[in-house]
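Support request, please re-run this one:
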Amino acid sequence: MTVAAILQAKGRSVQTIAPGERISDAVDILAQKRIGALVVVEKVDRIAGIVSERDVIRALSESGTGVLDAPISTIMTRNVVTCDESETIDSVMGRMTRGRFRHLPVEVAGRLVGIISIGDVVKVRIEQVEREAEDMRAYIATV
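Re-run finished. Output below.
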């Protein structure tokens, strides 16, 4: 199974924010949409960074509530790890686990086309394992 299959099932909608927007704006979007990360974009679908709940918490801990008026660019992760649609579930799961991050933007030709979370990946992997177990039970029943 590939990243494209996850995007086909869940959709390609991505919540984004501009680097100059305030951190408090990001907090509002994260809370309203009940999501864990926003992709920071410049121009048309060009990834400039990513900001997660963890980034906000870290900034609040280090700088206090005054940081909420600062631009997103001050706390975003700039070197964003991305994937493409052809990558396998096992490949992206390994990368997310090793990198200790939960969100992975999907790019095609340098443009943002979706985002997957570790929850999306785990869900698909569990479905695969359950399907394999059922196939094995069916095979054993015929022997």
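Helices lie at 3-10, 23-33, 53-63, 89-99, 118-142. The radius of gyration is 18 Å.
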